[in-house]
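Chain A, query sequence.
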Amino acid sequence: MVKSLNVLKTIWLACAVNMLSLLPSFGQEITTLTFTGKSSITQEHIPLHYVVVSNVTRHWEEVLYYPDTLLQFGFTGVDEYEGNGSVLLLQNVPNPFDGVTDFTLQLANSMQVNLEVYDLSGRKVADYTGRFASGYHLFRATLVSPQTYLLSAKTEAGLLSIKMVNNGNGANNSLIYLGSIHPEGEEILHKDGIRGFSSLPFMRGDEMKYVGYVYLEPDMRSSAPIEKFQMGDEEITLLFDVCSPVVHTLLVSDIFPDAAVSGGEIIHDGNTSILRKGVCWSTSHNPTVSDSHTDDGTGEESFTSSITGLVPNTTYYVRAYAINSIGTGYGEEVSFTSHCNNLEVTISGDDEICAGESTTLTASGATSYQWSTNDNTAAITVTPTSTTSYMVTGTNQYGCTGTASIMVTVHQLPSVTISGDDEICDRQSTTLTASGATSYQWNTNVTTAAITVSPASTTTYTVTGTNYYGCTGTASVTVTVRELPTVSISGTTTINHGQSATLTASGATSYQWNTNDNTAAITVSPTSTTTYTVTGTNQYGCTGTASVTVVVNS
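Chain A, predicted structure.
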């Protein structure tokens, strides 16, 4: 007959259950049951909210709370454990631990206890001795080295031991007493997260019944019950006819540089309400709701989603999602590339130049450029000889492109000429007339087409002519100033009445006398004193004059 029967209830919030190893002495045994919830549809893990454990044989029922649940039954199978000699040594989760762990000692009666911790070499590294009342007592072990330790509890009822695996480095090797944690008949949550225990009768072979429960908004759902004769340790899977939603992702449409449209269809709601649905997207494969996503309401109806905040010319991956109380279901992945903006590239610079001139063309609106001249800078300097079209393709940081072109018109220079005498005689003037342009600028600072000049010596005159397009041409003329001939007359200047005199002009190449003679020498027979004048012309057409008076004596 079993006089001391104990139940340990320990709960983890993680998906996997960490097993606890107990090595009791004097024939005491531990039966360990672990409970895990799964979907009968997809076999996915379902966190349990609680499990109702019923002992049909002994007519008791126990509720284990929180997700995955570990239940341990301790019992003695021999008569020497009757009376007040029953002791149970229990380690709280986790095991392995990281330098520090707590464990619980259950005493049926008040007794002296000697707790000792041994390392792998058998060396005692920590101990604690005291007398304790019946009930549950909490201790804390701090251990320095990462290794397996043996914790033993020596009492009047016998010796119990458990293995403890340390993965960390505690500050020192020590055992300390934290206090009593178990008021009779209640489960108590210690301020540090340690749970207490309850006492229920159990023997291997008892008929047991297990039913799991999960809260699926807005209802609590139960698993299919499991009934069996419990013979020993077991991992028990409780099946629920629910699962995460099954979703189909719609193809992406209405694609713009910064937005697009997708959506989804709920293929199966998992037999529970759809709490949220939408699409999620990312530049990486398999986006989740942790990435950019939409919230498109509840329910199992198909939905349309607006994808926003996109970067132009970028590939995105999209999945529809739906969430119920079991979890999140994702549809198949689809991809699309956002469109480019209409990149507006412009060119600035003179689009009209004169022949022989250069112009700098500057592109803007992008981050890199490629010209039809094979240049790849934003600005280029060109010197076309005739009207030429230039094109540039600009690319922004997203790889989007735009083009622009400009026609550079080349205007010919005006053909400026100067007309007018370029040879004059000293003290003469000449009129120089420019033509071939619309406006003029002489080096004499005169701005008319024609100028009259009277140079004292040979002089060069330059004019700059400007046409309608602002193009200029120049012309020059050198006006040569020729000296006047020095004409003189020789001969007899005094004669008697009735005599003749010969007058000869010199210093020129041709002559014209006031007697209408045009020879260098003339013979005159004046009847009275007379003045004779000759005009001499040199080879340049310049003239000089001379006069002589022939006196006639009576």
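The radius of gyration is 61 Å. Residues 209 and 227 are 4 Å apart (CA to CA).
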